[in-house]
Design a protein that fits this description.
By secondary structure, the protein is mainly β. The protein is built from three helices and 14 strands. A four-stranded antiparallel sheet has the order 4-3-6-7. A four-stranded antiparallel sheet has the order 11-10-13-14, with no helix packed on it. A hairpin with a 4-residue loop joins strand 6 and strand 7. The longest helix has 17 residues.
């Protein structure tokens, strides 16, 4: 049996206590992300470290390893505790981000974070509808246009409109971000179908509509 003197025991306990106080508060730390739908199946997203200010100040750098399809997939953010070491990017698919948290005292913590893309519904009522005009150009074939109808104030709340056409159309998901002609999209075809519509508002939220195309000879909608 090895005898340990009382003074040595006290010194060891003090060293352990000091080491414990030097470690960051890991229980208060997590990695999270925000997301905003921008159309055509793509999202703007931001990943960050969520922790109390004292814990964030103990971090030197955060290294994010993105999916290998990203250019320069390993990205390091340093000395930005006020911004929670945030990294922003854009894409269409979710994946697991490898996160390496490097503390100023040399400690390294590895965390996996699965990106989550959430579509937010508009918190307030948006009084708009979708309508279409059409013109027969030969028997059974139509030029047509679909647009958003509403007051100027309501239309100003919209950033972009995404129309999902029938799969038989080339590039069926069409994004219109110009408010000219009420976010008008024109096409040509012979069959009617329901057009799913996403209204992307300037506050980052999304409102969904559906419009059944109606073919009848009439002039295009006024500006």
């Amino acid at each position: 049996m090895i005898a340990i003197r009382p003074k040595v025991t006290i010194a060891l306990r003090l060293a352990v206590a000091l080491a414990a106080t030097a470690l960051p508060c890991l229980a208060a730390l997590k990695v999270d992300n925000t997301s905003t739908y921008v159309g055509a199946g793509r999202w703007d997203w931001t990943i960050f470290v969520d922790a109390d200010p004292d814990t964030l100040r103990q971090i030197d750098c955060v290294e994010y390893t993105l999916h290998p399809t990203f250019p320069n997939p390993v990205r390091k953010v340093c000395s930005q505790p006020e911004a929670k070491f945030a990294l922003s990017s854009n894409g269409w698919g979710t994946f697991t981000v490898k996160v390496k948290i490097i503390y100023k005292n040399g400690r390294v913590e590895d965390v996996d974070h699965q990106l989550v893309f959430k579509q937010q519904s508009a918190p307030t009522q948006l009084n708009v509808t979708a309508e279409n005009w059409s013109k027969e150009i030969e028997p059974g074939w139509w030029d047509w246009g679909i647009y958003i109808k509403g007051t100027p104030a309501e239309l100003k709340r919209i950033r972009c409109v995404e129309y999902s056409l029938h799969d038989s159309f080339p590039n069926p998901v069409r994004l219109v971000c110009s408010p000219d002609n009420r976010f008008l999209l024109t096409a040509r075809g012979w069959g009617k179908f329901t057009v799913p519509i996403k209204l992307m508002l300037k506050d980052g939220t999304v409102r969904e509509l559906g419009h059944e195309l109606d073919f009848h000879s009439q002039a295009p909608a006024p500006k």
